[in-house]
Design brief:
By secondary structure, this protein is of the alpha/beta class. Helices cover about 35% and strands about 10% of the residues. It has six helices and four strands, in the order E-H-H-H-H-E-E-H-H-E. The longest helix is centred in the last third of the chain and has 17 residues, at about 115-130.
């Protein structure tokens, strides 16, 4: 069994088809949800991205895992993460999160943000921007590309993929 933790930061759940929204705003998310476990009544431990993600990855409240603020505190390295648990059971652990590097959330992941991929695509973005000044390369597209390539690469083994979309947040 594979585990995919898909987080869309700042997405309004009342605008998703899986939650009864009438417009076709989320066909891909709806399809994934129809084939997966989906938690529509989730409540954050704290209304801040880094501590909330740390809570999801550890099962602990912020005062226990140490990441209580946006950029001043990091995840306590003594705390066990979901990635570490799954890795100890033979899972390949992959994290795709561009915003939270260096916050300690990469603990237990074999690959986190895939640095080589980030460098190559940074060059591509610079080239595209120099050709089309108003071009905006969305990180969601980049994250989805990474996720799809990692799913394909590891399809014959157990993997844990954490993918975090932040485009809506900004």
């Amino acid at each position: 069994m594979n585990v995919i933790l898909l987080i869309v930061d700042a997405l309004r759940p009342d605008h998703l088809g899986l939650n009864g929204y009438g417009r076709n705003t989320s066909p891909n998310i709806d399809k994934i949800a129809s084939e997966s476990a989906s938690f529509s009544n989730a409540i954050v431990t704290i209304p801040s991205t880094t501590p909330s993600i740390a809570s999801m990855l550890t099962g602990l409240y912020p005062h226990s895992h140490g990441a209580r603020f946006i950029h001043r505190n990091k995840l306590d390295q003594k705390v066990t993460t979901l990635a570490e648990i799954l890795k100890s059971h033979g899972y390949k652990t992959i994290g795709c999160n561009f915003e939270l590097m260096g916050q300690g959330l990469e603990k237990g992941f074999d690959d986190f943000s895939l640095m080589k991929w980030r460098i190559v695509n940074k060059v591509k973005r610079v080239i595209k921007k120099s050709i089309h000044w108003n071009h905006n390369t969305e990180r969601a597209e980049e994250s989805t590309y990474i996720a799809k390539s990692q799913i394909k690469k590891h399809r014959n083994k157990n993997f844990f993929l954490y993918i975090h979309y932040t485009d809506l947040h900004w």
